[in-house]
C-alpha cells in the first residue's frame, strides 16, 4: 500500500473512532437492584435515556423467600441472581454483584440467634467468592448495619465485614459496602479494617456515598455517589475519582426508590451542560469501573 493511501485510511479511522466515542457514550450505574416491580423493564428505561452498563446487586434472603439455615442455602439466591443478570445482558451490559447484606445479621439473628447468623453470613460470603472465581460475578457486597444494634451485634458485624475483606482479597475482586451513614471516623475505621486484612482500598467501594470526593480520596476508599439532587455535579467539581449509582430497589411497595432507573444517565449527561467533557464521563463511567472491578467495558 502506498504511504499516502495508508495515511488517508489512518486519518479516516481516527475520525471514525472519535465519532463513535461521541455517538456511544458509556454510562454506568454502579449499584442497582431488580426485584418485583419493573424488573427488566427498568433496564429498558435505563437504556432509553442513554444507560449502557449496570452492576446488578442481589438483595436480602427474604426477598427470594429463602430462609437460610446454612451458608450453602444462599446458592439458590446467587443462582437466581446470576440468571437475572444473564437475562439483563440482552438489554444492556450487566454485571453481577453478590450480596450478603449486613442486615441479615438481624433478619436471621432474630430467628436463629446472632452468633449462628454471623456464621451463616461468613459461609455465604465464602460461597460468593467461589462464584467470582467461576466468573459468574465480578464483586461481592458486605458491610455493617445502617441502624442501631447492640454492642454484640455490632462486634459480630465487624467480624463479618473483616471476613468479607478476606474473601475479596483472596479471590481478587472488589467489595461494595453497605454501611451506616457517612462519617469521617467511620470510614477511617473501615479503611483501617481493610488495611489490616491487606485488600487494596481502591477495591473497597462505599455504596450510597455522599459527594465528598476529596475526603474519600484521602481515606482511600472508592466512592459510589448516589445520584440524588446535585450530588453528581458536586462530586465532579472535586475530581473524577468516583462512580455513580441509583440504588434503585424495584420494590412495588416503594416504586422509584431509592432513585429511578433513568436517573444516572440524566445526571451524568447534565455534566456536559456544566462544562465537563466526554473524557470526564468516560473516566467516571468506564475507566473507574474497569480499574475497580477488573472488567472490560465494551
What does this structure look like?
There is one protein chain. It contains 11 helices and 8 strands. It is of the alpha/beta class and 298 residues long. It has a single domain (26-293), classed as Alpha-Beta Barrel (TIM Barrel), CATH 3.20.20.140. Helix 9 (231-236) links the parallel strand 7 and strand 8. The relative contact order is 0.14.
Which structural class matches the secondary elements? alpha/beta
Number of spatially distinct domains: 1
Spatial order of the strands forming the largest sheet: 1-2-3-4-5-6-7-8
Mean pLDDT: 93
Reported CATH architecture: Alpha-Beta Barrel
What is the CA–CA distance across the termini? Answer: 31 Å
Choose one word for the global shape. globular
* Relative helix content: 40-55%
- CATH superfamily heading: Metal-dependent hydrolases
Q: Number of helical runs?
A: 11
Radius of gyration: 20 Å
Sum up the structure in keywords.
single chain, 298 residues, alpha/beta, TIM Barrel, 11 helices, 50% helix, disordered N terminus
Please summarize what this structure is.
This protein has 298 residues and is of the alpha/beta class. The chain is built from eleven helices and eight strands.
Amino acid at each position: 500500500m502506498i504511504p499516502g493511501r495508508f495515511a488517508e485510511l489512518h486519518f479516516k479511522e481516527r475520525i471514525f473512532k472519535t465519532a463513535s466515542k461521541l455517538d456511544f457514550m458509556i454510562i454506568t450505574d454502579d449499584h442497582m437492584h431488580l426485584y418485583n416491580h419493573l424488573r427488566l423493564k427498568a433496564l429498558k428505561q435505563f437504556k432509553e435515556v442513554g444507560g449502557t452498563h449496570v452492576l446488578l446487586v442481589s438483595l436480602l434472603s427474604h426477598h427470594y423467600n429463602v430462609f437460610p439455615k446454612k451458608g450453602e442455602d444462599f446458592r439458590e439466591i446467587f443462582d437466581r441472581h446470576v440468571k437475572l443478570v444473564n437475562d439483563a445482558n440482552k438489554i444492556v451490559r450487566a454485571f453481577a454483584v453478590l450480596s450478603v447484606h449486613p442486615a441479615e445479621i438481624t433478619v436471621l439473628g432474630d430467628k436463629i440467634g446472632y452468633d449462628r447468623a454471623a456464621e451463616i453470613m461468613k459461609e455465604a460470603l465464602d460461597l460468593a467468592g467461589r462464584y467470582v472465581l467461576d466468573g459468574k460475578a465480578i464483586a461481592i457486597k458486605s458491610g455493617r448495619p445502617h441502624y442501631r444494634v447492640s454492642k454484640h451485634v455490632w462486634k459480630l458485624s465487624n467480624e463479618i465485614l473483616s471476613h468479607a475483606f478476606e474473601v475479596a482479597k483472596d479471590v481478587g475482586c472488589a467489595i461494595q459496602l453497605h454501611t451506616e451513614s457517612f462519617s469521617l471516623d467511620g470510614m477511617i475505621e473501615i479503611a483501617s479494617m481493610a488495611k489490616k486484612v491487606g485488600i487494596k482500598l481502591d477495591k473497597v467501594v462505599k455504596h450510597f456515598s455522599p459527594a465528598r470526593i476529596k475526603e474519600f480520596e484521602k481515606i482511600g476508599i472508592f466512592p459510589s455517589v448516589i445520584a440524588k439532587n446535585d450530588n453528581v455535579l458536586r462530586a465532579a467539581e472535586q475530581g473524577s475519582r468516583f462512580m455513580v449509582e441509583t440504588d434503585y430497589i424495584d420494590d412495588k411497595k416503594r416504586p422509584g426508590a431509592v432513585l429511578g432507573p433513568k436517573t444516572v444517565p440524566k445526571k451524568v449527561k447534565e455534566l456536559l451542560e456544566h462544562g465537563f467533557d466526554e473524557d470526564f464521563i468516560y473516566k467516571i463511567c468506564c475507566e473507574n469501573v474497569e480499574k475497580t472491578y477488573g472488567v472490560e467495558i465494551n
